[in-house]
Amino acid sequence: MPSKSPEFGAGLWHFASYVDRYATDGYAPPVSTLEQIARAGEVEDLSVVDVPYPFTEGVSVDDVAAALKENGLRAIGVTPEIYMRRFSKGAFTNPDPQVREQARAVLNEAADVVRVLGAKYLKVWPGQDGWDYPFQVDHHTQWELAVAGMRELALANPDIKIVIEYKPREPRNTMFWDSAAKTILGIQAMGVDNVGVLLDFGHALFGGESPAAAAQLLIDHGLLWAMDVNDNLRSWDDDMVVGTVHPVEVFEFFYTLKINGWEGVWQLDQFPFREDTVEAANLSIRFLKGIHRALDELDIDALRAAQARQDAMGAQKLVQDVLFSCLRTDS
């Protein structure tokens, strides 16, 4: 009997327009928060979105709530933008206590948005916390500020789940929260029960981790509370359409979630710079549906037996037989 179809989501930034250091005028005209929500509403089978905060100019939280309802969407998370220019030397780990206080204010405002929208979590991605050069920071001080800042946020918002999204680098040459293992250690040091992890598949790839192994480690510690999927060429966080480069590792990732009984939103974190954003989301969900069908058809007992023998070829054959046949079905 086929298992229940997963719920699909996307970061709202998937539907925005983008700039880089070459096309500094952008690849498309600016897209407001409300326009992003409308684009997300055009995607088949998309039901939830992660909403960046602050919203674009002139947009209120009530406007966002109304637009989500109008487009048949719900907010799963709120992502405060604590990685912009004013936090260029860090948010939690900034050497200026006034800037750290500004970061706390943004985070607590975003927590209120979580409450108003009825979202599942506040997502913390402190992209500017870290360093660029040897000797630039005192590593003990970095640890103390990062861990204490997250603890303070958690204690100030005990009714809200908070997830940390780790990443090895970018925008800093080294980010503080750079791996599954370090993030687990940091959360354990906080001594709170409302902080977990959002595992980004591409961040694990980019950081030299096995996404499946990272997921298992986080599950074993009770900390895998959310996840994002995408793909990349391993040398950078390319945020490409899921399954276009590493379909077998994507399958192993979702297999790991399945055998552990993990249930949550299958969420896209992609940046289709030059592609149609709605088409990119539809293609991604098409692939993820194939993954779901393949998981239903996979002979898990036979795979476990092959793994017990470390029979790489036997395991690969079982995986190939279901994965590539299921991807031919569009339903």
What percent of residues are in strands? 5-15%
CATH class label of the largest domain: Alpha Beta
Q: Give the helix/strand class.
A: alpha/beta
Going by CATH, the architecture of the largest domain would be Alpha-Beta Barrel
Spatial gap, N to C terminus? 16 Å
Which parts are unreliable, with pLDDT below 50 for 5 consecutive residues or more?
A: none
Spell out the helices and strands N to C: EHEHEHEEHEEHEHHEHEHHH
Give an account of the 3D structure.
The protein has 331 residues and is an alpha/beta fold. It has two domains: 8-293, Alpha-Beta Barrel (TIM Barrel), CATH 3.20.20.150; 298-331, no CATH class. Helices cover 43% and strands 14% of the residues. It is built from eleven helices and ten strands. The protein has helices spanning 33-40, 61-70, 97-117, 139-156, 180-190, 201-206, 211-220, 247-259, 277-297, 300-308, 312-326; strands at 8-11, 46-53, 74-80, 121-124, 130-131, 161-165, 174-175, 195-200, 224-229, 266-268. The protein has an eight-stranded parallel barrel with strand order 1-2-3-4-6-8-9-10, surrounded by six helices. A two-stranded antiparallel ribbon has the order 5-7. α1 links the parallel β1 (8-11) and β2. The longest helix has 21 residues, at 97-117. The protein is globular and about 60 Å long. The mean pLDDT is 97.
